Amino acid sequence: MDKSDSILIHGTSDDRVTISGMIEEEYDLGFEKWQAKIIDSEGNYLLVVADYRGEWEVSVSAPSDSGFPEWPVSFEERPYDTGDPAVRIWIPEDAVIHLVYSSH
Known about the structure:
By secondary structure, the protein is mainly beta. The chain has strands spanning 6-12, 16-21, 25-28, 32-39, 45-52, 56-61, 73-77, 85-90, 96-103. It starts with 5 loop residues before the first strand and ends with a strand.
């Protein structure tokens, strides 16, 4: 799989989430948990959560109404900082990110 067809999501510092690849975004969060739906044009989606509580956690789920998209997902270390998690998702070209926030 070509990484140019994917996005990489990870935390940076203790209050920022970075997305790179097909979509380039950076989010300042303060002390909130970052949640986003990655949605395609048919409404299928995956939910991604990044949370910092002394260490970063990154998770991906497919809720019951998600359409269960068959997008490959892999976990790796974030760039330039070994030991912190990142998630790579191969997404369709028409995918967009819709943010959902909730505090700790």
